[in-house]
Amino acid sequence: MISKFFRRVVAGVAVMAAMSMPVLVHAEGPYKIVDKWKLGGEGGWDYLVADSGAHRLYITHGTRVEVVNSTTGAPVGAITGLHGTHGVALDDAGKYGYISDGGGNAVVVFDRGTLQTVATIPAGTNPDGIIYEPATKTVWAFNGRSKNVSVIDTATRTVVATIDLPGKPEFPQVDGKGIVYDNIEDKSVIVKLAANAKKLVDTWPAGCEGPSGLAIDRAGSKLFAVCDKKMGVVSTKTGKLLGTPEIGDGPDAANFSASKGLAFASCGEGVLAVVDAKSLKVVQSLPTAKRARTMTYDDTADKAYLVTAEFGPAPAATAENPRPRPTVVPGSFTVLVVGR
């Protein structure tokens, strides 16, 4: 007969072993690739954004923005006639979207019902990251080459301020209360801007080198800046670095799930890193696909969407282009759907 003492020892060892095991994305199970949608078409791509209420994805793709159903992957339409797209911002009324058309040095406004262009607003040189700021109802277009931000009043559709930045801006975020944040890639810092005053008010170290994508945990007062192999987690209250969890190489986008308390980083080496916002530990590294480095996340559906393509050989290096990128196989542009 097993003694009570022995049973207690065995139970205690089992509890300690369970506590020491890594937790995979809380108790809901790990993420996995649940679908793949081949969209085809030509050209490069950059950021994409999910519209949860309308069940749509807006995907920048060369000289157009593809619009697909976020449940089925069925094409909805496209915004065309652009010059080189980077990002899409959506207003909080469900009416208009704003495209940073980097090749046209402009922000293009479109009607989300008809997908028709309704205005083209000149911005700085090569507008890249773009975001809607709800407290002031402005759109902020961060200009990569002129190293400034164009602030657009959505009522008049005019630039009401141009704010100089300390370097090359990447992706922005807002706290919903009038503060805008943005990564400055070549300086490895995060800038804090006041939307009402339309000025830069603080600069903080990003905690890693060359930050690109940026996510925000508004309730937890944290920013997540992604760099090669690291995620810099910074307090929005103090600007202090809280941690640097290790992620994959070559990330370009970051997102945050408020309902799950998770930060995501899509990495070009072919990994989606999932980080617990409280412990700042990586709870999953999901294999995705090579160069699947841009993404968006739909918190309502608990799904992430990444884009990539098949690649051929890189062209020969030249003095003008010493590191040429591999060529994209025509018609191979694909959305990877990650869920549980």
Explain what this protein looks like in three dimensions.
This protein is mostly beta strands. The chain has one domain: 7 Propeller (Methylamine Dehydrogenase, Chain H), CATH 2.130.10. It contains 1 helix and 28 strands. It has one helix spanning 4-20; strands at residues 32-38, 45-51, 56-61, 64-69, 75-79, 85-90, 96-101, 106-111, 117-122, 127-133, 138-143, 148-153, 158-164, 169-174, 179-184, 189-194, 199-205, 214-217, 222-227, 230-235, 241-243, 251-257, 262-267, 271-276, 282-287, 294-298, 303-308, 334-339. The strands form 7 sheets. It has a 4-stranded antiparallel beta sheet, with no helix packed on it. Strands 2-3-4-5 form a 4-stranded antiparallel beta sheet, with no helix packed on it. The radius of gyration is 21 Å and the shape is globular. Mean pLDDT is 92; it is low at 1-23.
Give the secondary structure arrangement, pairings included.
Blueprint: H1 4-20, E1 32-38, E2 45-51, E3 56-61, E4 64-69, E5 75-79, E6 85-90, E7 96-101, E8 106-111, E9 117-122, E10 127-133, E11 138-143, E12 148-153, E13 158-164, E14 169-174, E15 179-184, E16 189-194, E17 199-205, E18 214-217, E19 222-227, E20 230-235, E21 241-243, E22 251-257, E23 262-267, E24 271-276, E25 282-287, E26 294-298, E27 303-308, E28 334-339
Antiparallel strand pairs: 1-28, 2-3, 3-4, 4-5, 6-7, 7-8, 8-9, 10-11, 11-12, 12-13, 14-15, 15-16, 16-17, 18-19, 19-20, 20-21, 22-23, 23-24, 24-25, 26-27, 27-28
